[in-house]
Specification:
12 helices; PatA-like_N; Tlr1992 protein; alpha+beta
Length: 284
């Protein structure tokens, strides 16, 4: 099974939810693209590969040479390349490299967690900032066991955690919900994800009746922080933005009485005259 498309058609959050809920196994490729004037979408050089097993993310890389995890280990100075190569023959062909090295005492659990964070948790949130991107999911792509730490996580949990850690939101500013918008729950019951304290506080107002600015005032939190929280809730699919619920001022919505009366009277008189003339013509 192969699924292809553009992120303008399906958001990354929607793709993640589809793969997680469908317990899909395979490779999700994402390539940023740009629009050059009136030219077609042009792929950029950097491509991301995210690997799923039964709906859980098990690895992420920018290359298919199966050397990414080894490079991360070498960069951290934990193992030399020669040491890794000497241990590889003792690893199963269908087992993760990370667990193999842990079993042989070369890496400990904390090191595997740091590798998984650097490999998966750090880069994925930046993919949400893409203005446009091409994606393909290939269910027949074999899992890259030499890229896998042996750890896995829910795509939605990774998205939430990664966006919480994101420091530079410049590329995402245009995607944040507006202060004049409201936020409404899209699910029944409690969220299926672990929310932090401020996320829970905002979630309590996800009923579509208060603007983000009003929520900001009620919680004494900066409006930008409220926007970021709402964006995270929207990404994992438990809330949606309701645009422009603020009530316009009376001066902007109520027409002047005299002008309305003149227009309405003129229109009605013209309509009555037309109907009367048409009735007389039919009668004769």
């Amino acid at each position: 099974m192969k699924i292809t498309g553009y992120l303008s058609e399906f958001s990354l959050g929607e793709i993640f939810r589809f793969l997680e809920q469908g317990q899909k196994t395979g490779c999700l490729s994402i390539k940023p693209v740009e629009m050059a004037g009136m030219m077609p979408l042009i792929p950029l050089a950097q491509e991301y590969y995210i690997f799923f097993r039964l709906g859980q993310i098990v690895a992420a890389t920018t290359s298919l040479d199966h050397q990414g995890l080894q490079r991360l280990i070498e960069q951290r100075g934990w193992l030399r390349p020669t040491t890794i190569q000497r241990l590889l023959p003792f690893c199963s062909l269908t087992g993760s490299l990370g667990l193999c090295l842990k079993t042989q005492g070369a890496l400990d659990p904390e090191q595997l967690q740091l590798l998984f964070k650097q490999q998966v948790l750090t880069p994925i949130p930046h993919l949400f900032s893409l203005n446009e991107g091409w994606f393909k999911f290939d269910a027949n792509h074999p899992l890259p066991f030499h890229e896998m730490t042996g750890l896995s996580a829910s795509p939605m949990d990774i998205s939430l955690a990664g966006l919480r850690l994101l420091r530079d939101w410049t590329a995402l500013m245009d995607k944040l919900p507006l202060p004049s918008s409201a936020i409404a729950s899209t699910i029944e019951g409690q969220p299926p994800y672990r929310l932090n304290r401020h996320e829970w506080q905002v979630w309590e107002y996800a009923n579509g009746t208060m603007t983000l600015q009003e929520i900001s005032d009620a919680l004494s939190l900066p409006i930008l922080e409220i926007q970021k929280i709402c964006f995270r809730l929207m990404v994992v699919g438990i809330a949606e933005e309701i645009a422009g619920i603020s009530v316009p001022s009376a001066s902007a919505t109520e027409p002047e009485p005299i002008e309305t009366a003149e227009i309405s009277t003129s229109f009605l008189e013209g309509l009555f005259t037309f109907l009367k003339t048409k009735t007389q013509a039919n009668a004769s």
